[in-house]
Amino acid sequence: MRIFNQLLLISSLVPLVLNYPFFPPTCYSKVLSMSRELTQLAAHLKRDHETSYCMAHMPDLYLDVHNSCVMYKMRTYISLVEGLRQRRCAYTGEVRKLGVTLRQLFIFMSQKCHGDLVFTIHDCAALER
């Protein structure tokens, strides 16, 4: 009976171990993937017919995590998203998701991986493409 219990335990743990990523994401890879996701989401929201009326006056969002101006760009964009006063825009799930995720990325970059990130360029105009 004890062998059966151990086999049952092992057989239930094997799928968990095989599905678990072997290398957790680093701060850099997490920031890079989040910035790409947010850039794509903002572009999608500007093209989408349901949210284009909300995002029409918003600047394009391009996040380059290697550019030291990215923190200023994110702070400005967070303020713009949170400042949407039109009721339909403020309660649109995708627009809200953009603001929340952008704030998470900002906090992640400024607090969680502050020492792990290195800005290689300082070109604010490059973020305004």
UniProtKB/TrEMBL annotation:
Question: What keywords sit in the KW lines?
Answer: Signal
Short name of any one Pfam family annotated for the protein: CYTL1
Phylogenetic classification of the source organism: Eukaryota, Metazoa, Chordata, Craniata, Vertebrata
The record ties this protein, via InterPro entries, to: CYTL1
Which residues constitute the signal peptide according to the record?
1-19
GO annotation (BP), single: positive regulation of transcription by RNA polymerase II
Question: What's the protein here called?
Answer: Zmp:0000001268
What's the source species for this entry?
A: Amphiprion ocellaris
